[in-house]
Amino acid sequence: MDQEYERRLLRQINHQNLPTEARLSKCGSATCSPVSIRSGDRFIPTRAGSNWSINFHYANENCRSPNQTHKVKDATSDSSKDAVAYAALLRNELLGAGIESVPDTHTDDRRPSVRSQDSHSLFRYAVHTKRVPFDSDNEVSPYSLSPLSNKSHKLLRSPRKPPRKISKIPFKVLDAPELQDDFYLNLVDWSAGNLLSVGLGACVYLWSACTSQVTRLCDLSVDGDSVTSVCWNERGSLVAVGTHKGYVQIWDAAGGRKLTSLEGHSARVGALAWNGEQLSSGSRDRVILQRDVRTSPSAERRLQGHRQEVCGLKWSPDHQHLASGGNDNKLLVWNSSSLLPVQQYSDHLAAVKAIAWSPHQHGLLASGGGTADRCLRFWNTLTGQALQSTDTGSQVCNLAWSKHANELVSTHGYSQNQVLVWKYPSLTQVAKLTGHSYRVLYLESKSVLNLFTRIR
């Protein structure tokens, strides 16, 4: 090799391997310019600072538009699973990732981990150790003609988890005449005894999921009143009924008789929530009342924090905190001892009716906004911080967490009228259920989705 060419080549390589600060300081003088740097007659690229694992993962993601990325997240077909398996196979062969099973596309961390020692250099020399005796369960046969490694063979032999099928056809459809089309009411609730209570006009009806028998619990038309909310207690023996005139009636479902009628509100009661033997009620008069049904009605707690109608109430699974949503676009969190809210969230741009506490993570609260907001937001009530949010594209009417998986269901009004199943925390859509011709205003978690498909 020519000595002059070799000297220029070494000078170029040394210049490329210098740190950025040293290179800038060396070229800081007026006499230094890019033109003065002599280069060889061919280009030799340097790959010292390349992170092959990251570049390999994001090679296709950088070319996608936001709409394409959203479609990829929603894909749950077999082709997407094949693509994940193929990507893992390439990681094993090119990067030595050592992946032995196909990662689940709906898990929280969908990117297979790559060993850190292989992330600095793609090509390397290794000293081959003495081959251990052949084990048919753990190693590929030495006489195999397959070019794949042992880890890749395990990856291909690993059992694939069958995709979960969510039926898009309702197993039961119930007609609900006189079901009010009002965003601020809560007229459907499911009991622990597998009874569905529905407020239709001035009456409350009970439908048994076991026998499909329908019974009428009460009729408020005698008093010139109507039903605005229903809520079962935890044991499923008592059902609270909120009325348009501001009363809260407690009914014995088994006996079909009214136990008591509680006063205190000056407007309709649109939200109810039980906490053991205590009942919380929210009204259009902007007041939340907490009362123990075992004591006299005078022993009550008045919680005043909303400036407009209270349309959502939910107690936390540990029975320590009450979340309330109102038409003032506020989400408030109360404890069992204070008369003032301990936390206040004001990020929503519309009424907050959809509220749900996570049964899987302590202190995790989800909320949804109305037509002007359309966002699904998550809050850490232990620290008071906002976690995540996503625009659903339509009015969020209800939320309910799954008790068996880290998923939640949201029902929507204007303008999609659909039911969505979300995976948390990735917020990918597991399923989209359509078929409602009007807003899906009422949801009960035990039924997974609203059974009423018509408002007549």
What's the short version?
This protein is an alpha+beta fold.
| Quaternary class | single chain
Percentage of residues assigned to helices: 10-25%
Segments where pLDDT lies below 50 for 5+ residues? 26-37, 70-76, 108-120, 127-136, 447-456
Number of strands: 24
What is the strand arrangement across the widest sheet?
Answer: 1-2-3-4
Give the class from helix and strand content and strand pairing: alpha+beta
Helix and strand element order: HHHHHHEEEEEEEEEEEEEEEEEEEEEEEE
**Into which percentage range does the β-strand content fall?**
25-35%
Largest sheet at a glance?
4 strands, antiparallel
Q: Count every helix, treating DSSP H or I runs of 4 or more residues as helices.
A: 6
Radius of gyration (CA) equals: 31 Å
Provide the residue-averaged pLDDT.
Answer: 79
Structural shape: elongated
Kindly report how far apart the N and C termini lie.
91 Å
Layout: helices, strands, pairs:
Layout: H1 3-17, H2 20-26, H3 52-58, H4 66-74, H5 78-95, H6 150-157, E1 188-190, E2 195-200, E3 203-208, E4 214-219, E5 227-232, E6 238-243, E7 248-252, E8 257-262, E9 269-275, E10 278-283, E11 287-292, E12 300-304, E13 310-315, E14 321-326, E15 331-335, E16 343-345, E17 352-357, E18 364-369, E19 375-380, E20 385-391, E21 396-401, E22 407-412, E23 419-423, E24 428-433
Antiparallel strand pairs: 1-2, 2-3, 3-4, 5-6, 6-7, 7-8, 9-10, 10-11, 11-12, 13-14, 14-15, 15-16, 17-18, 18-19, 19-20, 21-22, 22-23, 23-24
Helix pairs in contact: 5-6
Task: Name the features.
6 helices, disordered C terminus, 4-stranded antiparallel beta sheet, 30% strand, single chain, 456 residues, 14% helix, alpha+beta
